[in-house]
Structure formats: structure tokens, C-alpha cells
Amino acid sequence: MTSKTDSASNSSRSTETAMEVSGLGFSWDPVQPRLSFPDIILKRGEHLFLHGPSGSGKSTLLSLLAGMLRPASGTVRVLGTDIHRLGAGARDQFRADHMGVIFQQFNLVPYLSTRANVTLPCGLSELRRERTEPTVEDEAERLLAALSIPADHWQRKVTRLSIGQQQRIAAARALIGAPGLILADEPTSALDADNRDRFLELLLTLAHRHNTSVLFVSHDQSLARHFDNQLELQGDRT
Ligand SMILES: Nc1ncnc2c1ncn2[C@@H]1O[C@H](COP(=O)(O)OP(=O)(O)OP(=O)(O)O)[C@@H](O)[C@H]1O
Questions:
Q1: Is 222 in the pocket of ligand 1 (CB under 6 A)?
Q2: How far is ligand 1, taken at its centre, from the CA of residue 35, in Å?
Q3: Mind telling me which Gene3D superfamilies this protein's record contains (predicted)?
Q4: How does the average pLDDT of the chain come out, rounded?
């Protein structure tokens, strides 16, 4: 896989590094070719768009960056910590403390209410809980309102909401407690162009407010204009 970094025009607000990826490689199994990923440096508060065709390894890369898959080679440093040197429990806690992940299928908990889905990370992380103002519930409601989820939906089971609303709830869950980094895996694929653009603008505006870095993957290159920088995965294998 080769990479191409395009405009690095917008400077980040901080020189602190949110994520540094070096020499990353992964094989799903011995008969499949090995995936090799480009090196990435993401500054604190910076928003990076990662695009590539279907099968180029975008979801695999996000799972490696979130510490949910172990690389065959290379390192992933998030906020200075080499996450793959942590034990499984410490890695899960690190993810809960410092990362918000928005999955392609949202992964909301179907039997919980809208608000309970948003507050979930604060149940797993004291750090995220302490960063909410003045309470976890208040911040969840503020995020839901900012993402245009009507107040009379907050106590409803999340499965009773539309796909677009569920997607915004997944974004609120990723943003609560101001994690250093949000990883988003093509969460806009079910939306029409207007809603997709509106969603991205909301996500990036709220992330900017919290100085949260965002790495967003998609096959849809038309979304690149919303981001500071972009990186292309071309699906080369070794
Ligand atoms: N669970 C798995 N087991 C074995 N191989 C897998 C698995 N998941 C992905 N792969 C393989 O890894 C390669 C990269 O897949 P990946 O899902 O990361 O690509 P992608 O760019 O996210 O694709 P898409 O845009 O279609 O979601 C593909 O060749 C795929 O077949």
C-alpha cells in the first residue's frame, strides 16, 4: 500500500502529537497478502481524511489504530503511548480514556435509551467522566441538542430512532468526555449528500471545540474538502 499526503495547508492548533503510526503491517491469515500501511502523524486537534477503494484496508487500519487488532509489524503511538505494548486490559482502558470510535454500523446498545448510549464511555472511564461539565448527563444532553436530537427522543430506546439520528448518537458517544482522538469508519454511507455534509460539519465543529483529533475513513473522496489533510490508501500488498 502506498500513501499520498495532499494539502497540509491548515496548521494544527497544537504541536502536540495525537497519533504517530510507523511501519505498520498486518496479515489476516498466512495465505492472504500482507497489508502495509502508510506512516501517519496526526497533531492534536487536526482532522485527517483517509480514503481508498473497497478492500484497501481502511477498516483493518482503524482496528489496528484502536488497538482491537495486533499488527504484524510497526508501532501505533496515541498521545505518546505505544498502545500495542500495553496488556489487553490496559489497552481497553486506554481506549476508553482517550479514544472515541464511530463504527460503520454505529454499534449502539439496542436495549438502552439514547442518553444512556451517549453516557456509556463515562461509565468505563473516570477520566472521561471527570472531563464532563457539570455532570455526565448534562454533557450528554448538550451534545444531543448540538447534534439536533430532539429532547423528547433522549429517553427513547435507540432502535426507535432513524438511521441518521443513530449516527449522530454514535458521534455524541464518541465526543463525550473530550477524548484526544476520534476514529470514524465511514459512518456516513447510509446518508444522502446533504445529511452527510451536515453530519460531518457538526462532528468536526464539536471535535474542534474540544481540541479532539479526528481520523475519518471513507471511500468517498468528495468528503475530503471538510478536512485539514488527506491520505490515500491504494491497496498495494506485499
Ligand atoms: N475478518 C477478516 N478475515 C479475513 N480477511 C479480512 C477480514 N476483514 C477484512 N479482510 C480482508 O482484508 C482486506 C482489507 O479489508 P478492509 O475491510 O480493511 O478494507 P476496507 O478498505 O475497509 O473495505 P470497505 O471499503 O469495503 O469497507 C480485504 O482483502 C479483506 O478481504
A1: no
A2: 10
A3: P-loop containing nucleotide triphosphate hydrolases (3.40.50.300)
A4: 89
How many independent structural domains does the chain possess? 1
CATH of the domain at 183: 3.40.50.300
ipTM score of the complex? Answer: 0.97
The alpha carbon of residue 122 and the mean position of all alpha carbons in its chain are separated, in whole angstroms, by 17
Domain membership flag for residue 5: no
Task: Judge if the beta carbon of residue 59 lies within 6 A of ligand 1.
Answer: yes
Pairing of strands 99-102, 181-185: parallel
Q: Which domain holds residue 101?
A: 17-232
Compute φ and ψ for 226, nearest 5 degrees.
-80, -10
pLDDT-derived band at 11 (thresholds 50, 70, 90) equals: very low
* Cβ 219 under 6 angstroms from ligand 1: yes
Q: Is residue 33 part of a domain?
A: yes
C-alpha cell of residue 100: 472515541
0.95 exceeded by pTM: no
